[in-house]
Amino acid sequence: MTAQQTNNADTSKTASLDSLLNDIDQNNGLASGDDAEENSRRKTPDRRHTSKKPRGTVERRLEDDRRQKKSIVDNARERILAQKAELKLQQHRKKILLAGCEPVMGLNYDHLAMDDYPDNTLVAEARRDRDYWVLICAIFASLFVFSLLGLLDAWVGGVGCGMAFLSAFFAFSPMRKFFFSRPHLHELLAKRKVIEYGALHHIQYLEGTDGLAWRCQKLTKFNPNLSKSLFNGIYRYSKDRSLLNYMQNKKTIRLYLLLMVEAQKAYKRLEKEYLESHFKHLDQGWDDR
């Protein structure tokens, strides 16, 4: 009896242990199931908040950006080419202007300055001296004529004839310079003609067949003094190829000299600007010629 009770007690203990182990296994199974489900949820990406745009949108944007950048580059290249073409045109115009006005650098200042040209005061004094000698000659000649008519003595007529010849000699002969310090009128006029001829010949050399002064008028941008109305007559006659007819005296020749001096200043400024631009473009890697 006692042994049977003992066996029953052992059997009940064993059953209770088995049920306890089963409960633990079930709890572990549930826990592992929850962990597996959680891991599966973590591994599966959540697409509920993704964009609803079509797949090709990014590619199209990239393609549009590339096209836009290409158009910007093309526009910039075209703009640079247009600027270069404009600069080439400007340089070409400057080169033509330099070639057209190049004779101005052959100006001989001394030929047109006419520093040794006898002034009007000196010529007027020489003319007055000549008139005095002519008057004296006429007086002595009249004495000689009166003596021939018998109105005066013969010796008076002889003296008058000699003095008339001497006064005529001093009035018209170049030998007068050996007796008087003041130059003779004939000498002054001859010197004037020589100086005027040299100046006019030099002007003809500068003007050539096509004229020079009217072309220098285009240099006004580099020297505003060329736009003065003082030079309008020279421009007009130079363009008509009749400038030598306008150059009649020292005043007009000196005016032409002033114009050439101002034109030289403008020409040098134009030449400097042209060369600076040319070498600058060469440093940038392109030729503007």
Structural topology:
Blueprint: H1 2-43, H2 57-100, H3 109-113, H4 120-148, H5 154-172, H6 185-207, H7 213-216, H8 232-239, H9 243-246, H10 250-283
Helix pairs in contact: 2-10, 4-5
Low-confidence stretches: 1-15, 28-32
Give the biggest beta sheet: none
| Beta-strand content bin | under 5%
Number of strands: 0
Mean pLDDT: 78
* Inertia-based shape: rod-shaped
Radius of gyration: 58 Å
Spell the H/E element sequence.
HHHHHHHHHH
Our count of helices gives 10
Distance between the termini: 134 Å
**SS-derived structural category:** mainly alpha
The amount of helix comes to over 70%
Molecular structure report:
The protein is mainly α. Among the domains are: 109-184; 208-289. It contains 10 helices and no strands. The protein has helices at 2-43, 57-100, 109-113, 120-148, 154-172, 185-207, 213-216, 232-239, 243-246, 250-283. Helix 2 packs antiparallel against helix 10 and helix 4 (120-148) runs antiparallel to helix 5.
Summarize, please.
The chain is an all-alpha fold and 289 residues long. It contains 10 helices and no strands.
What features would you highlight for this structure?
289 residues; mainly alpha; 0% strand; disordered N terminus
